[in-house]
Amino acid sequence: MPDAITIPAPADFHVHLRHLKMAHLVVPHVRKGGFSLAYVMPNLNPPITTTAMALDYKAQLQAIDPSVDYLMTLYLSPDLTPDEIVKAKQAGIAGVKSYPRGVTTNSDGGIESYEMYFPVFEAMQRVDMVLNLHGEIPSDPATASNFLHFVVFSDIGTEHLPFPRLRIVLEHATTRAAVEAVKACGPTVACTITAHHLALTVDDWAGQSFHFCKPVAKYPDDREALRQVIREGHPRFFLGSDSAPHPIEAKSTSTPTHGCAAGVYTSPVLLPLTAHLLESFGALDKLEGFASTFGRRFYQRELQAGQSQPVVLQRTKELVAEKYEAEGADVVPFWAGKPLDWQIVS
Ligand SMILES: O=C1C[C@@H](C(=O)O)NC(=O)N1
């Protein structure tokens, strides 16, 4: 059992950093949690739909913490054109995020059908931008669809030839079926896994609003499939935290017509938490691949010589903070008040 681990430049390939007061509270937590690269989600209100908006948002994030490499994304919507994709690529924007309509936070402008976006996907394939899929559709009794990650996904998976070179990431997989669908695809298709979905199952979020997120955690066998693919060291499965801060009040209150906000907040403890969880299911030796190398390779963000930005973890028990607050913003982290076996020492 090692007492210290060094990970070169951990990278979080799916994170919500918000804006305004919440951004001021949570953006510094990317570094605090051990990460120097943040792949930033565009579901602000209003969503980030143009290159200009994404660059403006990036500048806001850099003003809060310039030490993080922010990879920006656009929100897939009818406003997005092939010309805008070319412009976005030239401006260094890395991907386009697709949210099925109504499925999670700020997804009212999300998509209902993929076909109308085929010209956009064609442009993305041509300039080599990544398509990020929120792989979840609202339940529909008519088609018996219910958390069917792979239904959405298989609509445009690599075996569907219009876009065989389009690089696709299925975000925050939560089921065995999703893991198997991604494994069956070729090298253009990858998958992110969150830290919290490695810990939670249905029993943990039903009635515990701070564990409620979209997609919700599923059954023990689904969680085991996520754990197993990490144990295997599969290079197309890597960490994307989906760390999603919401004010404590929004997490704590629901009404007869509105549930509480969906999102689990892991940024400030992300690397220690990931190490702790991987060790609990016998995958600590896969931490470097899962939290740094595999995602960087898929996104072509590999470290250059002399760029290793190592983070050192030491085996030391420490309790996670009960909450974080700053002027006008507060948030409860995942694992609040509980011990983690690893801490960042440098
Ligand atoms: O996909 C998402 C979005 C996120 C948010 O709060 O933005 N919260 C979630 O639980 N899932």
TrEMBL record:
The keyword Ligase does not apply. GO terms for cellular component: cytoplasm. Signal peptide: none annotated. GO terms for biological process: 'de novo' pyrimidine nucleobase biosynthetic process; 'de novo' UMP biosynthetic process. The keyword RNA-binding does not apply. InterPro entries: DHOdimr, Dihydroorotase_CS, Metal_Hydrolase. Coiled coil: none annotated. Keywords: Hydrolase, Metal-binding, Pyrimidine biosynthesis, Zinc. SUPFAM superfamilies: Metallo-dependent hydrolases (SSF51556). GO terms for molecular function: dihydroorotase activity; metal ion binding. HAMAP family: PyrC_classII. This is Dihydroorotase. It comes from Mycena chlorophos.
